[in-house]
UniProtKB/TrEMBL annotation:
Name of the gene this protein is made from: pepD
Protein name: Cytosol non-specific dipeptidase
Gene3D superfamilies assigned: Zn peptidases
Family annotation (InterPro entries): Peptidase_M20, Peptidase_M20_dimer, Peptidase_M20C
Reactions catalysed according to its record: Hydrolysis of dipeptides, preferentially hydrophobic dipeptides including prolyl amino acids
Length: 487
C-alpha cells in the first residue's frame, strides 16, 4: 500500500511520510524514530544532534541568496498517538502503519494514521533533503513525547536554538493560522477497594459501549461526541440504583488526549431480576442512542450473559465510584468570552479502569486561561477526594498567549491571501501545542502554527486530505521564500 501513497503529489512530502510511518514511534518509546532521524540528518551531511531528553536538531545552511534572512526553526513532534479498533491485532511497537487511499483521504487500516504530527515531520525532512527549495538557514527541531506529556519541549534547554522565527507544523485545518493554544494538566484519581465474593443466585453480564467517534480531546471536544466512560457509567449507575448491580471490572478508554470510544464492564445482578434488568438496560440504551443519533450513528450498547466472575467491588466503594464518575465534568466547561467559537476550558474523562482491588481514573483538563484551568482541576479533585480517591495533578504545561502583532503572522496572512484569494482564519486552538512551552525558554522567538487538513486525530478514523497536502506544501515553500531579512 505504501507504493500507492508514494505516488501521491507532492511526492517529496508523501515519500517522507511513508518512510516515517514504517518506523514504530509510540510516545515515550521513541528510541527507534530518534535513531531514524539522527541517521537521516547524518546521511545528508548536515549537523545533527540529539539533546539530553531525546529531541533531534538538524541544521541546514541557507540556500544561495537567502543568507541574509532570519534563521527559521521548523518544528514538529516525532511521536504519535496509538489507538486501534478492538478487533485489530495491529502491533504498534513492531509494525509500520498500514496506509491506504480513500477518495481524497489517506487513512490507516484500523489504527491511527500518524498524520498528527507525521506530516509535519515529513515536510521538514523533504525540505532538508531537497537541493531545489529556496530557504533561509534552518534549524529543524523534532521533539519527543508531545502526545503524553510534552516532555521533549519541556526538556529543551535555553541556548540550543538560534532561530528568530519558529514555524510549528501541527495545526489541522489548512485555512487556519494558529497564534495561541490551551495549556493542560493531568488529573489522576486512584483508590483501592475490598473485593467480595459474587452474591449467590447471580447472573453475570458483559456490558459493551462501542462505535463512538472518539477523536482529539482538544480539537474535537466542542463537537459533543459521546464519551464511552460517561455513557457506561450511566448504565452502571442505573443498574446499581434499580437492581443492585455489582461491578467486577471496568476497562474504558485509553489515552488522556483521546475522547474514549469504547468501554467494557463485567457486572452481576440478582438472577430473580435478570429479565427486568435486561429490559431496563435495553430501554436506557435506546434512549442514549436516540440522544446521540446525529452525532454517533454507529454507537452500540450491548449486554450479554457471561460466566460469573470470582469477585466484585464491595458496595460502599462501588457507590462512591459511580457517583464520582457521574459528578466528574466532561466536555466543554467554558467558552472563551474573548474569541468567538473558541473553547476556553474543558475536561476529558479519558480512562476508567477497575480491576484487582484498584480503581484508576485519568482526566486531561485544558484551558487557555490558567485560573480557569485551575478552577476546573480543583473542582474535579474535590469530587474525587470526597469519594475517597487520592488525587494527583501532574504533567502541567502552559498555554500559548496569542500575539496579533506578530511579524511572521503578517507574512503568512499576506501569502495565504495572495495564493488563495481569501483570508485565512487567524485563530487560537483548544489543543496543546508546544509553542507555549518553547516560548518560556525562547521568549523573543516569533512563533506561528499551521498545517494540512487532518480529521479524526487520536482515533482510528484519523485521515489526511490529499488535496489539502498539495495546498499546504505550496504554502510552506512560499513562506520559506519570504522570510524577512535580518534586522
Amino acid at each position: 500500500m505504501s507504493n500507492e501513497i508514494r505516488a501521491l503529489e507532492p511526492k517529496p512530502l508523501w515519500n517522507k511520510f511513508a518512510d516515517l510511518n514504517a518506523v514504530p514511534r509510540p510516545s515515550k518509546k521513541e528510541e527507534r524514530v530518534i535513531k531514524f532521524m539522527k541517521n537521516f540528518g547524518n546521511n545528508l551531511g548536515l549537523e545533527t544532534l540529539v539533546d539530553s531528553v531525546g529531541n533531534v536538531i538538524i541544521r541546514k545552511p541557507a540556500t544561495a541568496g537567502m543568507e541574509n534572512r532570519k534563521k527559521v526553526v521548523l518544528q514538529s513532534h516525532l511521536d504519535m498517538v496509538h489507538q486501534k479498533n478492538n478487533d485489530s491485532g495491529f502491533d504498534f511497537e513492531n509494525e509500520g502503519i498500514q496506509m491506504y487511499i480513500d477518495g481524497d483521504w489517506v487513512r490507516a487500516k484500523g489504527t491511527t494514521l500518524g498524520a498528527d504530527n507525521g506530516l509535519g515531520v515529513a515536510t521538514i525532512m523533504a525540505i532538508l533533503e531537497s537541493d531545489e527549495i529556496q530557504h533561509p538557514t534552518i534549524e529543524a527541531l523534532f521533539t519527543i513525547d508531545e502526545e503524553t506529556g510534552m516532555t521533549g519541549a519541556m526538556g529543551l534547554e535555553p541556548g540550543m536554538l538560534e532561530g528568530e522565527i519558529l514555524l510549528n507544523l501541527d495545526t489541522e485545518e489548512d485555512d487556519e493560522i494558529g497564534i495561541g493554544c490551551a495549556g493542560g494538566v493531568d488529573i489522576t484519581a486512584t483508590r483501592s477497594y475490598k473485593e467480595e465474593t459474587v452474591p449467590e443466585a447471580s447472573t453475570a453480564y458483559k456490558v459493551v459501549v462501542k462505535g463512538l467517534q472518539g477523536g482529539h480531546s482538544g480539537m474535537d471536544i466542542i463537537k459533543g461526541f459521546g464519551n464511552a466512560n460517561k455513557l457506561m457509567n450511566r448504565i452502571l449507575f442505573n443498574g446499581f440504583e434499580n437492581f443492585g448491580l455489582r461491578i467486577s471490572e471496568i476497562n474504558g478508554g485509553g489515552l488522556r488526549n483521546a475522547i474514549p470510544r469504547e468501554s467494557v464492564a463485567m457486572v452481576t445482578v440478582d438472577t430473580a431480576q435478570k429479565e427486568d434488568f435486561q429490559a431496563e438496560i435495553n430501554k436506557l440504551a435506546d434512549s442514549i442512542k436516540e440522544e446521540y443519533k446525529s452525532l454517533e450513528p454507529n454507537l452500540k450498547i450491548k449486554i450479554s450473559e457471561v460466566n460469573a466472575p470470582e469477585k466484585v467491588l464491595e458496595v460502599g466503594a462501588q457507590e462512591l465510584l459511580v457517583k464520582a464518575v457521574y459528578a466528574a465534568h466532561n466536555g466543554v466547561y467554558r467558552m472563551s468570552p474573548e474569541i468567538e467559537g473558541l473553547v476556553e476550558t474543558s475536561n476529558n474523562v479519558a480512562r476508567v479502569e477497575v480491576k484487582n482491588g484498584q480503581i484508576e481514573i485519568l482526566c486531561l483538563t485544558r484551558s487557555s486561561v490558567e485560573s480557569s484551568k485551575n478552577d476546573l482541576a480543583n473542582s474535579l479533585r474535590a469530587g474525587f477526594e470526597l469519594a475517597g480517591f487520592e488525587v494527583t495533578l501532574s504533567g502541567e504545561y502552559p498555554g500559548w498567549a496569542p500575539n496579533r502583532d506578530s511579524a511572521i503572522l503578517k507574512v503568512l496572512d499576506e501569502i495565504y491571501q495572495e495564493m488563495n484569494n481569501e483570508k485565512a482564519e487567524i485563530a487560537a486552538c483548544h489543543a496543546g501545542l508546544e509553542c507555549g512551552i518553547l516560548g518560556k525558554n525562547y521568549p523573543e522567538m516569533d512563533m506561528i502554527s499551521f498545517g494540512p487538513t487532518i480529521r479524526g486525530a487520536h482515533s482510528p478514523d484519523e485521515r489526511a486530505s490529499i488535496s489539502s497536502a498539495k495546498k499546504y506544501w505550496k504554502f510552506v515553500l512560499e513562506i520559506l521564500k519570504n522570510i524577512p531579512e535580518k534586522n
